[in-house]
Write a structure and sequence with these properties.
Length: 224
């Protein structure tokens, strides 16, 4: 079950989906805009994949690992500041969005409300949104705030997939237990993708698998 897919353990060229993912994420990835309202979100024909999770879950690190850039997603790393959704164009084939982190201890009620409002607007206003990757720290598992986000995604009927992060920090036996527990939680969620991804940005585990998953959602060639 735990198949972090250490990329060195197989020949990537033999797996077309893995190769598709590699090629897609080797394309240029360009920061477009940080949107704070529906009006400032870019008009686009591209399919879209969003990354969400608690603050500090490893979201910036994962986006940087996927795209092979060290500093691409750093722009979004301002907990407590103005909440914005950052849009990145990946090779004119897929839009990636970095949602503001949630769940940090000192968040005020108004900040939580602001998060909910922006995310609801986004979920409602982006018919091209194909998937939300919901990142969960493998050391902590699902928290109450994650469950709230899952409910929000269920209500919006947006397909989402759980991605466990920092799996280099969690023993395999604990990881298996976490996956088992999380699967039980997932069963009640209509919009959840059944497969839980196992990743580590630091050890680069599961990165090529996640790239392959997301490449299946991209358009096959550039828009222009
Ligand atoms: N051990 C380990 N630490 C990680 C990993 N990914 C991120 N981190 C650490 O977790 C902290 C938060 O990461 P960051 O990507 O900024 O999280 P964000 O707030 O969700 O964007 C940083 O100290 C990272 O170095 C990982 O795969 N393994
Ligand atoms: Mg960040």
């Amino acid at each position: 079950m735990v198949n972090p897919g250490n990329s060195s353990s197989f020949n990537e060229k033999e797996y077309p989906a893995i190769e598709d993912g590699r090629i897609l994420f080797a394309q240029e990835c360009t920061f477009l805009v940080g949107a704070t309202s529906i009006e400032t979100m870019p008009l686009s024909e591209l399919n879209e994949v969003a990354f969400a999770g608690r603050s500090n879950v490893g979201k910036s690190s994962l986006i940087n690992s996927l795209t092979g850039r060290k500093t691409l997603a750093r722009i979004s790393n301002t907990p407590g500041r103005t909440q914005q959704i950052n849009f990145f164009d990946l090779g004119e084939r897929l839009m990636l969005t970095d949602l503001p982190g949630y769940g940090y201890a000192k968040a005020s009620k108004s900040l939580v409300q602001q998060w909910n409002k922006l995310i609801r607007l986004y979920l409602k206003g982006r018919p091209q949104l194909r998937r939300v990757c919901l990142l969960i720290d493998s050391r902590h598992g699902l928290k109450e705030t994650d469950k709230n986000t899952m409910q929000l995604l269920d209500e919006a009927a947006v397909s989402y997939q759980l991605v466990l992060t920092k799996c280099d920090k969690t023993k395999e036996s604990l990881l298996l237990k976490l996956i088992e527990r999380t699967n039980i939680n997932l069963s009640g969620h209509v919009a959840a993708h059944p497969e839980i991804m196992v990743t580590s940005s630091i050890k680069r585990l599961g990165i090529s698998q996640l790239r392959a998953e997301l490449a299946a959602l991209a358009i096959k060639s550039k828009v222009r």
